[in-house]
Amino acid sequence: MPAPSTTDPRSVDPRPDDPHAADPRASDPHAVDPRAAARVALERARARTRALVDCLDDDELTAQHSRLMSPLVWDLAHIGNQEEIWLVRAAGGRPALRPELDPLYDAFRTPRADRPALPLLGPDEARAFVARVREASLEVLESVELTTANPLSADAFVFGMVAQHEQQHDETMLATHQLRRGPAVLTAPPPPAAPREALPAEVLVPGGPFTMGTDTEPWALDNERPAHRVDVPAFWLDTVPVTNAAYQEFVDAGGYDEPRWWHPRGWAYVREHGLRAPLFWRREGDSWLRRRFGHVEPVPPEQPVMHVCWYEADAYARWAGRRLPTEAEWEKAARHDPATGRSRRHPWGDDAPGPEHANLGQRHLEPAPAGAYPRGAAPCGARQLLGDVWEWTSSDFTGYPGFAAFPYDEYSKVFLGGDYGDYKVLRGGAFGVDPVACRATFRNWDHPIRRQIFAGFRTARDAEVTD
Ligand SMILES: [Fe+2]
Question: Which residues participate in gamma-L-glutamyl-L-cysteine binding (predicted)?
Fold first, then answer.
């Protein structure tokens, strides 16, 4: 069972819908009956959503805490609207419950900055709406045939997709909590310490082909498919993500003042916005402090650096005489098992993520120290590839050979190849990512200027012929 979490409302008043009460492995469609897995996944997601909104009053739920984010009450009703569209209408074939809400909660029609001005449902209305939708979707889950003839319902895919969608919004809502000013409302126990052992700074990933992407993961999304062979030359990868201490050396060395380390667009962005350090850091005397979910605390040197944009990650890597790994390199390091030649679901094997493997699921409210989770190590020896922080890669977001949009273009297709702008791929998931939305094939993407996401990075270098 996962370690108990103490996200505030539950630590004060233990709730039956504790998001950590259910073992995430019970929501693994590989391990258990997909219908049962879908029910657990939906319940876990809803318990987390409630924990993120019930700790704030109505004014805080309707406020826009940052122009980068929606009011939390928008996320809440959007979760219900998407669930209604996909589970009640598409999977269940039932009439729409609240079709008039569709335009208000369509993420493409309403930019985040405009959402506070919309006639949104209030917090109580939004809660009642999502509960009504959930009742209907659980009825559909029990009654619908999970036939392979319908790819939407095969292996309960659409239910897994909706649970992942809700968890992804929960992660976005957690980012809103981080941007919000005001007293802390979330708490959780600290992550586990790293074992006292000397780790090599980098690990060698041998060259050769490996299988990237998947055809067999039941709830994998369209952009993770299809599986295909990719030849990746040998390379060295950091054993652990770049730490705050290492990043601080770059800051202290004047890294933000030296154009030679920066991508030209990154340099322009740094100058225009006066960036000097990761988001949420501030200097006080000789030390650096950070703001984290309402607490101001010294920057912990041993934790992976977080809240850096792609340009900062790229500049650090160049300063260090290294580079960011490509997405294929990252996935090969995370999945390729040289002993068998096959690709694993996760770095440690095919078992679903448990609390011993990775810092996932908001059990903790910060990354674990670099080197933690030895049981989650990959065959190459790299640690913390899943969990803790998202990791920027050097790759643009593109479709795999044979990519087919499913079940709708707006999930991935419109973002591929830069239709909506410049996107870099992030891999691995952060502490605020639920296991249902985290696997070694999972792909995230964002603009290279984004810093409010829970993103860090690790660096790589080419292997010499003699390595
Ligand atoms: Fe969404």
Answer: 112-115, 446, 450
